[in-house]
Amino acid sequence: MSGPAHEALRLLRSRGETLAVAESLTGGLVAADLTAVPGASRAFRGSVTPYATELKHRLLGVDAEILRARGAVDPEVALQMARGVREALDADWGIATTGVAGPEPQDGQPVGTVFVAVRGPLGEGKVAALRLKGDRAEIRRESARSVLALLCEELPGQQSRNERTQDTEQYGGT
User: Fold this and answer.
1) CB count, 10 Å around CB of 137?
2) Cα gap 70→162, rounded to integer Å
3) What is the CATH number of domain 4-171?
4) What's the CA gap between 65 and 52, in Å, rounded?
């Protein structure tokens, strides 16, 4: 088996780290991709699907003022969702999807506008803006693939939990 879900879980397991997912427009596709991989439970903590905008605030702590001013389809919302799910599910990494799959524009954004985000154990975050073409199903599927690919890009460049622990023991730092 290959693909971004398999690769993400392989990298997380090799580092002894865990993942939580917040997905709006993908509605559970990312979690489904992850749980289709045998042994996913060793790294995947769970997911939250706050499809309604107010749930992004209530469940994940996304700033209500940003949601009011910019709407849910926004890069900062994606980053805050990733942070919120990471904290809520006590995971090392959080990833998130938010966007417009169609058929109508939302929050002043055209169909195919998607933001995917990752937030790591040191608080660092990265967001990618996507402009996707295709029907609703294609946009949702590509969004799920893209957020997992973004996670895979970020994992190799970050120090693992084991390396951070070793640094703390060796150098007495935090």
Assistant:
1) 11
2) 39
3) 3.90.950.20
4) 16
